[in-house]
Every structure is written in C-alpha cells, then in structure tokens.
Amino acid sequence: MSKIFLLDTNKKPLNPIHPAQARQLLKNKKAAILKRFPFTLILKDASSHAEVQPLRIKIDPGAKTTGFVLVNDATGEVIFAAELQHRGFQIRDALTSRRQLRRGRRNRKTRYRAPRFNNRKRNEGWIPPSLQSRVENILTWVKRLQKLSLIDSISQELVKFDMQIMQNPDIQGKEYQQGTLAGYETREYLLEKWDRQCAYCGIKDVPLQVEHINPRSKGGSNSISNLTLSCEKCNLKKGTQDIKDFLKKDTKKLESILKQAKKPLESAAAVNTTRFTLLNALKATNLPVETGSGGLTKFNRIQQGLEKTHWIDAACVGLGTPILNIKGVKPLLIAAKGHGTRQMCRTDKHGFPTRYVPRIKFVHGFQTGDIVKAVVKTGKKVGVYIGRIATRYTGSFNISTKTGLVQGISYKHCKTVHKKDGYSYSK
Description:
Layout: E1 5-7, H1 19-27, E2 31-35, E3 40-43, E4 55-60, E5 65-72, E6 77-85, H2 88-109, H3 129-148, E7 151-159, H4 163-167, H5 181-193, E8 208-212, E9 227-231, H6 232-238, H7 243-246, H8 251-262, H9 266-283, E10 289-293, H10 294-303, H11 310-315, E11 332-336, E12 345-347, E13 353-356, E14 371-376, E15 383-390, E16 396-401, E17 404-410, E18 414-418, E19 423-426
Parallel strand pairs: 1-3, 4-7, 6-11, 7-10
Antiparallel strand pairs: 2-3, 4-5, 5-6, 8-9, 11-19, 12-13, 14-15, 14-18, 15-16, 16-17
Helix pairs in contact: 2-3, 3-9, 5-10
C-alpha cells in the first residue's frame, strides 16, 4: 500500500503513514493537507514520534518515461512510486520549428548580413536542451522527495545496456562470475532494437531466439550489429543461409532489416547521452549513489517474478535490491508540461501571426497549469471535472481531464486543487 508523506510542525519529514492513519489524523483535525501531489500531511501540534527510518530513492531514467521509487532497504517495502513522462522530444521539435522560422525570417529580411560565429561558445558539459530537460526533471523530483522523506542513498540505472559485457563476454567481476547477466544484456538490447518481434515475419508474443544475420558458418561475427531476433520457425527455415539468399524474393524486407541492423537506438542514445550528467547531478546532493545496468535490473525483476513497468524497473535497480513488497502500490503518474511560452503571438505553420497572446498571467486568481476541481450544476456541461486548466481572459476555461478536453467552463465553478508547478498528475 502506498504510504502518505507526513511532516512535523517545522516541515521536517517523519515516517510515511498508512492511508487509514492519515484519514484518522484528518478526521481528528490533528493534521492538515499540505500538498495534493504527492499527497502530504502536516501535523498541527508538535509531539514525540518514532525514529525516522531512512529510505533509498531508486531511479530508472528513460528517454520518454522515468520511474521513481522510495524503498525501505531494511524491510523491502515500497513506500512511494511514480512515473515521470518527459517532454524532451517536444522541446526538440519546438526548437527545430523555431530555427526554421528564424532562418526563413532572416533570409527574407537580412539576406546579405555577414555571418557571425563568435557568439556560439558553449559551456563545458553542455548538452542539448531537449536532453537537459530530462536531467532537470529528475533532479527536481529528487529534491522534492528529499523534503518529504528522509533519503540516505540513491540507486540509478546508469546504462540501459552494458556494452562491455556484450563485446567481451569473458569479463571478470563478482556480478559476472556466474555468466548469467551477459545474456540478459544482449537479449534486452535486441528486444528494444527489434521492437520485441520476429525480424522476418513480424510475429509478437512468442518466444524469440537470438539469430545471426550473417551466419557464423559463413564468417559472421557475434557483433551486436550482426544479431537480430527471430521466431523458432523462421530461425529453422533460414538455417545457415545468407540473409540475401533467404530474402531474395522480398527485397523490401531485406533492405529494412539491413538498415535496422546498423541503426542505433534513438531512445537509448538519449539516455546514454545524459547518464553521466545525471550521475554527477545526483552526486552533487552529497548522497551515496549506487549504479547498475538495465540487464541487472531485468535480472532482479525476473528473479522476483514481477511484471515490467517503469516504476517496478526502478525498484529493481542496483545490486542491493531486497525482496520487494509492492502489494497495493499505485504509482503517481507525472507529466512534465513546462512553464508556458514567451511567444507574444501564435503562428501558423508558415510562421505568420494568427492570434494574440495576452500578457496577463492570472485570470480571476487562476493561471494556466493550475489543477482545479469544477462542479457544474446547471447547463449543458453538468458534472464534476478535475484536471489541468488553460485560462482565457473571458473567464471561460478549458480543463484537460482523464477522459479528454472539456471546453467553456466558467471560473465561478472552479476551485484550485494544486497550484501550477510545471507538471500534471493522475493516478
């Protein structure tokens, strides 16, 4: 069961409590709600409490979604779980669009301006904004959770795949001595690269075998670029044939497989680019940081018979993973939304202005990004709506709910649940 964060009167973290205990504290008016996301209570009166137990925060960084978990190493109990959806690819697309519009505008208005290059210096350790946002999102939530609980250590999945063990299966070390992890690293990489399906027939949800594109009997190597996945039927049918002979009647499939074999993983590349930047940022918190690979994470998860989700993967990061107690845990789903835009007007796809953007941030005490609860009792839109709002100067708001977008809700029906902080939340 996911626990509720509890703070004392000085906003110092105490041991997280069971939801039933939280309800009792609220009922007796001994505590008040401090935050809705993540749900946090603050005590009204100072009193003695049990010794606060330290927790470990475990992180499984991803290109699109990152898993967070707070684990009690002594008991293996998962206290809190969350999945954070990044907006790195949105930032990349927005920067690309802005660059295209800027170049077009300069081409029209300043065609013969001399090129300038002295303003293009980058600081040491610079990474693209789309990747930096992932690091900042993760660091933001580590700092937030530090304020709500006593965290004494961090576990981070440093690499999705251990390339060293794939290239040199005879590598020595206590985690590799049994030779178990080597297969996990290669297989997990191939599953990601080939979309968990047979490369030849496209079948899914069947046992897949690691297969050499260029057979070993004809000089093919064990290099990761020469490996793919196939079902048993296709593997037996291909046998020791060269792939060009096997697929001579399907040239499109042949070209697709050869192209995919050379193609790196976009998501894995994003994670690998930010891994050490994130590691250094986590070390700057002055907490001990443990690292592990994606293959080790999968090994721990399978050993405990757990399903694959982002937050469960996070719970299985690292060598010191205890026997986990995840009964009743529901992750908090977080999506990075940013803090708006500084554009003075919206443009069409050609870069021409289409509508004005008001400079006023607050409308009747609300601003875009607030999470509100709207209770509409009359009219065509009777109902209760909870979600993130987009304000209009007229006072008629749009609310993004779980079921979709609801337009034209008056501010008079709205009550703030959670102030804008750059993220949206759902269970």
